[in-house]
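Tutorial, part two.
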Amino acid sequence: MPLPYCVYVLNSLKDHKHYIGFTMNLENRIVDHNEGKTTSTAPRRPLELIYCEFHKSKEDAMRRERYFKTTAGKKVLKLMLREALIKYKD
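Running the prediction step on this input gives:
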């Protein structure tokens, strides 16, 4: 049985900043972001998925999303994704 809740990280190919989100349908959510349907990311398009993790519990996924948005969580993401992020350095 697939895990329904996803925490994801997008990288803006325009400004190389990241967006952290939560969804139950990752494919549709990425399309929404890239079509400009999300106001926080519309001016930063195009966006590329660089990380996702799935959870069985909605509460666990939302807690993880909140953590990744903290200073400590952002540091952890940078360590976890350091190889993937090399190509985005200016």
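The beta strands are 5-12, 18-23, 47-55. In part three we will examine how such features are distributed along the chain.
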